[in-house]
Design a protein that fits this description.
The protein is mostly beta strands. Helices cover 0% and strands 63% of the residues. It has no helices and 10 strands. The mean pLDDT is 90.
Length: 155
Amino acid sequence: VGVGGRYLTLDRLAGSDPNFFTLDAGIIVEIMQMFRVGIVGQNLIDTKTDYAPRQLGTGAAITFEAFQASFDVNLDLQTDPENLFPHYSAGLQYLFGGVVVARAGVSFGGIEDHTSVAFGVGYISTTLAVDAGFSTYVDVSGGSLFSMSLRYFLP
């Protein structure tokens, strides 16, 4: 079970305040030692923009030693209630030495119906995690994203 707050700055929001706070919450259930499923609510505090809509996501992952493969789907609950615009993602990750993780993935669909690839690295301990990632569209020009996150795990 987890809850996370995010402070977002979106430069695309001309004429309105591009800075806002929102909240995500989710749960992961381990069915067997190597299989997990989860569900998450994203942007639970209304951002008042379609650039960060309220979403419902679900996913599954299978882990074998330090290797993990995952698949998930996010549904846009806010932009157009008649069409949930499913967004699909699949990814692979490998954990080196129990603390450094390398990731790669692909995603497609959603409201813009574009395909993107992503790569990332991170450090994880029992109390802290730091991640950096890069994503770019492969079917249209532009549209790259660089992100960083810092997570603290309660004892």
